[in-house]
Write a structure and sequence with these properties.
This protein has about 375 residues and is an alpha/beta fold. It has 3 domains: about 100 residues, no CATH class; about 90 residues, Rossmann fold, CATH 3.40.50; about 130 residues, 3-Layer(aba) Sandwich (Dna Topoisomerase Vi A Subunit, Chain: A, domain 2), CATH 3.40.1360. The strands form 4 sheets. It has a 6-stranded mixed sheet, sandwiched between helices. It has a 4-stranded parallel sheet with strand order 6-5-7-8. Helix 8 links the parallel strand 10 and strand 11. The chain starts with 17 loop residues before the first helix and ends with a strand.
């Protein structure tokens, strides 16, 4: 006698018991689990409308045998248990399910784990917040909206009042600005473990101030940088992937140069730095090193990951200069780029290994176009 055929298991009943719902919504803090979204999954009550839940319970391994990431061996009741569920908004739900080749079971499980860890770390622990960000607003001649800047931290929040550092060379000499900037940064870091605390920086200031701020911060603290997006009038990073634009490096001399002298290091990110402008500063550089985008432009910076690439490239350039030009007397940095890129480049300058580093401010129509502003050195 033949065995009876196993009945087809098509999809779960989608019946979630009360404890499953409490755990799922509670551990997610009522937010979408996708880190670039994390929107609140309800719309508040008004005088005219009731509260509305907009969250969707998504299955990691599909509810249906034919669904995305389906696992026919998983029993029907098990498909509706907490271990197989994740809380999402409708947009992220459709995207994760629609792009199932990229969004694997392992990826989505890690997504939920990371989100729940973020929720736990965001809650006060025994009355002490673990998520506040110390904040620096580096401001040039024109003030900007403090509240608009700090709102870019959401869903995180600032730890106390922001430290506002003014840098207007039209009203104050550069040495005075730098002394105040250095004292402000060191004062902020003195009260905290520099390897542990988190710092959010909103720079909208002259190039010298941005590079020097990074130099004084060093690469030790955990720094998150924000860019002011003029077209959108916001400090929040756009929710988009950046176009791939490889930074190129050129200008190294062959082999190790044992001569003593100066090295020019140019960052061509928003515009190209003309050789004539560099030679107006000094005629006999040992080398002119150029870090360049394929097409420098002011709208290039659209994602935080682009700053990581700038940091990696700058660190590599500085280390190569130390090796190729061991007797360099002074570095000269010429920078054309967005403010946060200046900060991350400054962070890569090693105060104990690099030679004194001269910074410049550019002004079109002036001769020379680049005027020295401040000299960074270990003796400061």
């Amino acid at each position: 006698m033949e065995d009876e055929a196993e009945p087809m298991r098509e999809k779960s009943a989608r019946r979630y018991d009360a404890i499953t719902l409490k755990i799922l919504w509670g551990r997610a803090a009522g937010r979408c689990a996708v880190p670039t979204c994390r929107t609140e999954l309800y719309v508040g009550k008004t005088d005219y409308n009731p509260i509305v839940g907009i969250g969707e319970i998504a299955h990691i391994e599909a509810s249906s045998d034919r669904g995305p990431r389906a696992n026919k061996r998983l029993g029907l009741p098990n498909r509706d248990e907490y271990e197989n569920l994740i809380l999402l908004c409708s947009n992220c739900h459709k995207r994760l399910d629609g792009q199932k080749n990229t969004n694997t079971v392992e990826f989505i499980r890690q997504l939920r784990y990371n989100h729940e860890a973020w929720v736990r770390n965001s809650l006060p622990e025994r009355g002490n917040s673990t998520t506040g960000w110390a904040t620096i607003l580096l401001q040039g001649a024109h003030p900007f909206d403090v509240e608009a800047a700090l709102s870019a931290l959401v869903p995180d929040f600032p730890d106390g009042d922001p430290l506002i550092i003014h840098s207007d060379p039209g009203k104050e000499a550069w040495p005075s600005i730098m002394a105040r900037l250095r004292a402000s940064v060191f004062g902020l870091m003195h009260t905290k473990d520099p390897f542990d605390f988190r710092l959010a920086v909103f720079p909208l200031a002259p190039v010298t101030a941005c590079l020097a701020l990074g130099y004084y911060l060093t690469s030790r603290p955990r720094v998150r940088l924000f860019q002011y997006h003029r077209d959108e009038y916001t400090w929040s990073w756009p929710n988009e992937s950046p176009a791939s634009k490889e930074l190129s490096v050129s200008g190294y001399e062959e082999g190790v140069i044992s001569d003593a002298g100066d090295v020019a290091i140019c960052f061509n990110l928003s515009a190209r730095i003309l050789e004539a402008s560099i030679l107006d500063v000094k005629q006999d550089f040992l080398a002119q090193i150029h870090v360049t985008l394929p097409s420098p432009n002011t709208g290039w910076l659209r994602h935080e990951n682009q700053l990581k690439e700038v940091a990696r490239t700058a660190r590599s350039v500085f280390e190569t200069c130390l090796w190729n030009y061991p007797r360099s007397v002074k570095w000269h940095i010429f920078f054309a780029g967005p403010a946060p890129a200046g900060v991350v480049i400054g962070q890569q300058i090693n105060p104990t290994m690099s030679p004194p580093t001269q910074l410049y401010e550019f002004r079109r129509g002036r001769s020379p176009a680049y005027l020295p502003s401040i000299l960074l050195s270990d003796g400061e």
